[in-house]
Amino acid sequence: xxxxxxxxxxxxxxxxxxxxxxxxxxxxxxxxxxxxxxxxxxxxxxxxxxxxxxxxxxxxxxxxxxxxxxxxxxxxxxxxxxxxxxxxxxxxxxxxxxxxxxxxxxxxxxxxxxxxxxxxxxxxxxxxxxxxxxxxxxxxxxxxxxxxxxxxxxxxxxxxxxxxxxxxxxxxxxxxxxxxxxxxxxxxxxxxxxxxxxxxxxxxxxxxxxxxxxxxx
Amino acid sequence: xxxxxxxxxxxxxxxxxxxxxxxxxxxxxxxxxxxxxxxxxxxxxxxxxxxxxxxxxxxxxxxxxxxxxxxxxxxxxxxxxxxxxxxxxxxxxxxxxxxxxxxxxxxxxxxxxxxxxxxxxxxxxxxxxxxxxxxxxxxxxxxxxxxxxxxxxxxxxxxxxxxxxxxxxxxxxxxxxxxxxxxxxxxxxxxxxxxxxxxxxxxxxxxxxxxxxxxxx
DNA sequence: GAATGATGCGTACGTTGTACGCGTGGTGCG
DNA sequence: CGCACCACGCGTACAACGTACGCATCATTC
Lengths: 217, 217
What we know:
2 copies of one chain form a homodimer. By secondary structure, chain A is mainly α.
């Protein structure tokens, strides 16, 4: 299960450390990311890492910002609200590929790449024609939606991990009393029965359309 | 700074352990909640706790569910959508009082109290007149909003902790180039300048109204 | 009074992040 | 050509942390 293990014993620099750390977190979850584990993966001993990385926290921050680089920024000719939409969807795609990222997103002050995304979104809201204050709220609403949705999905996957989703859900279902919790049971069942539809984009559009409508009174 | 320190050396049972743990987490953050620290606070030694609590993870789950008990469930005569609104606001209030809770919310399978809240919300959506599938999405949208919003606010507070909010924000602002990130700077400045309005309820209503509108085509 | 079970706790271990300082090899200057 | 220097890798060590294990103490029951 060794994560891609980029050819070990290349000179070792911050870049390589961060990328290997991302590979481990992707493959085995962020809990498996130990400084020792990371050093092993790179073919070095633990303390060698500390020549290139201040500490684990800074490393995690770097990983987040590295991942943020993969988020697409729509071209300048894209209409503001459509651009916001695309940017959100791209962010979600990146989070799906790096499920540990949303959980760390909020723990660190934004790095260079995240700042670029903040700037893009805020600028797009500025150009959107929405009242300024509504843009402010819209920014938070949209960021919150992307982050929250992905977090929820990630935690579900995480708690499953080894066993199938059904096993866990069944176990949870067994703790429910059919008399007292019919709606909850039905809801979980809907998840088990597969696609409950493109919830993410539906709510995203609902927020964006709602903002436009609010501006129109 | 010793958290309320309920009269130590009472007989020690699960209830008391959970409540003291909550007090510590409230007062000093969840990172300060160590099994040893908790034992100290109660006037016992570490291993005594393990007679009443399986392990730390189970303790955290119990804390979350205990906190969930404080969320108000509107009366049966409250109109569904209004009830959902009130329930969300009450949840937010509880999260504000226990800032560590939203971060743990997703880590554990729901306990008895959380199940009750799921059931209430889903039942209310069922009674709301919204198409069933829209209710399903609405449930997630609303839960996500409450959780995400509070999480974001909590992480901000947490990263401040000792120093004033201004210090941190100023430091962040200094990392911004006024030429390249004018919108980001303006946005942070708006936060520093105080109330940017009742963002939470505004977006909550936006979501709820949006759902109703979607149902009406 | 002897057996039983619940409860507190002393000791100890494995895992984690990381401080400190030594050794070594390449590089630039005299 | 040799010597000083410095960047880099790493061995050792320590302070948290969660928690396994088993003994000691007490109250209860027969």
